[in-house]
Amino acid sequence: MRLLLHTCCAPCTIYPLKILQNENIDVMGFFYRHNIHPFSECLRREETLIEYAKIKGIKVILQQSYELERFLQSVAFREDKRCSFCYHDRLSSSAKVAKKGKFEAFSSTLLYSRFQNHDLIREIGESVSKEVGIPFFYRDFRDGWKEGIEESKELGMYRQQYCGCIYSEKDRFYKT
């Protein structure tokens, strides 16, 4: 199977990629970046992913634009629903790239994180699958959480401490 894997960052890619490759799935990454703030953070995550992809011998499609304004306009005054919008935007973009690239399915490293709303990601992925017309490959990768963290540290990878959006960065530093 040829699978397009939405990759939010290199550390979150480690375990899902290992599992998928062990199942003889041909994986190509897709780095979506509209939600990552500031731009310097986006570039740092992208560079780390590119380095890791070279080590693992996989190709990664890098989104070329940076539409932070569109992301912010889409979630402004709906901040409590920002994750839902963000999941949909990333998965929808991934599905469209996968369909255009004639992949057999798409998935996401979001399914690896213990900090993301797993059920909502799955629900949105399945909905987007029907909308776009390409299968969503669902797998719960959270059982490899510690393994992925340990390997990322062994590799000396840049490890970010927030999902990427300006709101999560605020949550990380500003405690009410």
Written account of the structure:
The chain is of the alpha/beta class and 176 residues long. The model has no long low-confidence stretch (mean pLDDT 96). It has a single domain, classed as HUPs (Rossmann fold, 3-Layer(aba) Sandwich). A 4-stranded parallel sheet has the order 3-2-1-4, with helices on both faces. Helices cover 49% and strands 10% of the residues. Helix 4 packs across helix 5. It contains 7 helices and 4 strands.
What is the terminal separation in angstroms?
Answer: 47 Å
Structural class: alpha/beta
CATH class: Alpha Beta
Summed over residues and divided by their number, the pLDDT gives a mean of: 96
Strand content: 5-15%
Low-confidence stretches: none
Query: Count the helices. How many?
Result: 7
**What is the fold-level CATH name, i.e. the topology?**
Rossmann fold
Q: Looking at the structure, what is the overall shape?
A: globular
**Second CATH tier, the architecture:** 3-Layer(aba) Sandwich
The major pleated sheet works out as: 4 strands, parallel
SSE order, as H and E?
Answer: EHEHEHHEHHH
Draw up the topology in text.
Layout: E1 2-6, H1 14-22, E2 26-31, H2 39-56, E3 60-62, H3 68-75, H4 82-100, E4 105-108, H5 118-132, H6 145-154, H7 166-173
Parallel strand pairs: 1-2, 1-4, 2-3
Helix pairs in contact: 4-5
